Amino acid sequence: MMNILLGGALGRMGREVRLAAGSAGAQIICGVDVAYSGQPCECPVLTGYEQFEGNADVIVDFSRPDALPELLKLAQERKMPVVLCATGYTDVEIRRIEEAAHHIAVLRSANMSLGVNVLQELVAMAARTLEGYDIEIVEKHHRMKADSPSGTALMLYEAAKKEKGPETEPVFGRYGRAEKRTCGEIGIHAVRGGTVTGEHEVGFYGNGEELILTHRAENRALFAQGALRAARYLMDRPAGLYSMRDVVREMLG
Question: Which of 64, 67, 133, 250 minimizes the number of CB atoms within 10 Å of its CB?
Answer without folding.
Answer: 250
